[in-house]
Amino acid sequence: MHNPIFSLEVFPPKRDAPVGTIYDTLDGLSGLMPDFISVTYGTGKSADRTATARISNTIRKDYGLPAVAHLTAQYIDKAQADEALNMFEQAGVSAVLPLRGDPVPGREPAGVFDYASDLISYIKQTRPQMTIFAACYPECHPQAENLDQDILFLKKKVDSGASHLISQLFYDNEDFYRFLDKARAAGIDVPIEAGIMPVTNEGQVRRMVKSCASRVPERLETMLERWGSDSAVLKEAGIVYASDQVADLVAHGVDGIHLYSMNKAAVTRRIWENVGDLFEDEDSTVSDKDLANQA
Ligand code: FAD
């Protein structure tokens, strides 16, 4: 048995949000000691291109934790990829999560990196020293024809250089176990972390499952119907639901848990209080091998 990885995701605040909110989030998360914190990359026109590198740098320098910087591929060319990667390296970040990114209506792709695997290959060739992560989809990516085909493309990401996978959110662990069996059968042998997004608000979860084409299992549907209009109670139920998911996944020996913090430090802390003891820290797979030199 190995010790599961525990990691978190944060996102840069919107341009019009007070800049300090991300530091409040990171302060609120301090003491949890995740193996790393990943920082998303905005694709929208108004997204601040430097935010991911700046926040990653803060995580590393001020909080002493390894950071993984996301980078979306389809709207950038090689010069822009280099610019972003240089920024990450100057910020001391040696791990990157290349993604294709979601299509932005009305915006023409650059036509250089059509898929995440194209950017992964480019980084592998030009910066072999970087650790490369990639995304995976237990319930199939919404644009893929089916899960088997999606897994073939996932294998391509691993063969191109990704050495660590993080999954999209899911609310039924059976979907993750089924995916894991298929991925292993396809020869994907890198660590696969399970992505858990706590339910805190009915509108938000309905939007997320719609955009991810994710299933709402009966148990969660009942919760949403019962407490959807009482956000304080739904949040409590959501913390229990996410904690239950994590306990079951760790009991099944998964490689790791990636908690989508949604920048909600208090909720993340509550889940950690429930499940933190399930993660022993002695020989953590990821920080030792891939990321320790960063912090
Ligand atoms: P890809 O791996 O390129 O796959 C996209 C689709 O194309 C899939 O349907 C796949 O089956 C298919 N495909 C792949 N390769 C080929 C090929 N060679 N030929 C034909 N079809 C192919 N979005 C952001 O904007 N910023 C973020 O920071 C961000 N972080 C994320 C983190 C995680 C862990 C996850 C799971 C998602 C994240 N996303 C983020 C969302 C992500 O950008 C979208 O899900 C996007 O639609 C797919 O990105 P990908 O890298 O998985 O795409």
Q: Could you say which structural class the secondary elements and strand pairing correspond to?
A: alpha/beta
N-to-C CA distance: 26 Å
The low-confidence parts are none
Small molecules held by this entry:
flavin-adenine dinucleotide
Q: What is the share of helical residues?
A: 40-55%
User: Approximately how much beta-strand content do the residues carry?
Assistant: 5-15%
> What composes the largest sheet?
8 strands, parallel, barrel
Q: Tell me, what's the shape?
A: globular
Order of strands, widest sheet: 1-2-3-4-5-6-7-8
CATH level-two architecture: Alpha-Beta Barrel
Domain unit count: 1
What is the CATH topology?
TIM Barrel
Pathway: One-carbon metabolism; tetrahydrofolate interconversion; Amino-acid biosynthesis; L-methionine biosynthesis via de novo pathway
GO cellular component, one term: cytosol
Family: Belongs to the methylenetetrahydrofolate reductase family.
Keywords: Amino-acid biosynthesis, FAD, Flavoprotein, Methionine biosynthesis, NAD, Oxidoreductase
Considering the chains and any ligands shown, give keywords for the structure.
295 residues, alpha/beta, TIM Barrel, eight-stranded parallel β-barrel, globular, binds flavin-adenine dinucleotide, FAD binding, NAD, methylenetetrahydrofolate reductase (NADH) activity, flavoprotein, Methylenetetrahydrofolate reductase
Plain-language structure description:
Helix 1 (21-29) runs parallel beside helix 10 (265-275) and helix 8 (218-227) packs antiparallel against helix 9 (231-251). The protein has helices spanning 21-29, 51-63, 78-90, 116-126, 147-160, 173-185, 202-212, 218-227, 231-251, 265-275, 285-291, and strands at 5-10, 36-39, 67-72, 95-99, 131-136, 164-169, 192-196, 256-260. Strands 1-2-3-4-5-6-7-8 form an eight-stranded parallel beta barrel, surrounded by six helices. It has 295 residues and is of the alpha/beta class. The chain has eleven helices and eight strands. Bound molecules: flavin-adenine dinucleotide (FAD). Flavin-adenine dinucleotide (FAD) binds at residues 40-41, 43, 70, 72, 99-102, 115-117, 135, 141, 143-144, 150, 153, 157, 166, 168, 195. One of its GO terms (biological process) is tetrahydrofolate interconversion. It catalyses: (6S)-5-methyl-5,6,7,8-tetrahydrofolate + NAD(+) = (6R)-5,10-methylene-5,6,7,8-tetrahydrofolate + NADH + H(+). GO terms for molecular function: FAD binding; methylenetetrahydrofolate reductase (NADH) activity.
